[in-house]
Amino acid sequence: MATGVLSGHFALVIVCDGPDRLARGVLESELRGRLETAGLDVSAWDVGEVGPAPAPSQVLTVYGPDRPGIVHGIASVLAELGVSICDMTCRFQGDLYLLTMELDVPAEMDQAELESAIAEASARLGLEHALNRVERADL
Predict the structure, then answer these.
(1) pLDDT tens, 73-85?
(2) Which residues pair with 6 in a beta bridge?
(3) Alpha-helix runs per DSSP H in 16-110
(4) How far apart are the first and last CA of the chain?
(5) What's this model's pTM, rounded to 2 decimal places?
(6) How far apart are CA 124 and CA 116, in angstroms?
(7) Assigned superfamily of 58-133
(8) What band does 65 get if pLDDT is binned at 50, 70 and 90?
(9) CA distance 128 to 94
(10) Residue 28: CB partners within 8 Å, gap ≥ 6?
């Protein structure tokens, strides 16, 4: 489950399992009927339509003074490079805006090219950044 606040709008994603006999349309209609009075919108997808979750290989943190366009500026550069964002959080720590993204970077991606593109985008936005590989312990 993931939650977030986007420009004052609350967002919630829930992944759940139900009985095979429960059709997606029926579930969506039932939830919509119960939640519309609260001003909430509902969308349901079959897991097969969503696909498997990507596995993050790197974590990007971008930080500095807040301004419009930070998420778009960084995300669009990543999209151009074919990098997927697996998870993202945005928050304030005092006067500091922090954007953290877990990234699924293609194995063939040149690390120097990725670092350079992120550095350029961060600098254009007047921000600093840190890019680190995800360390996984074999269990």
Answers:
(1) 999 999 999 999 9
(2) 9
(3) 24-35, 47-50, 70-80
(4) 23
(5) 0.66
(6) 12
(7) ACT domain (3.30.70.260)
(8) very high
(9) 16
(10) 42, 43, 44
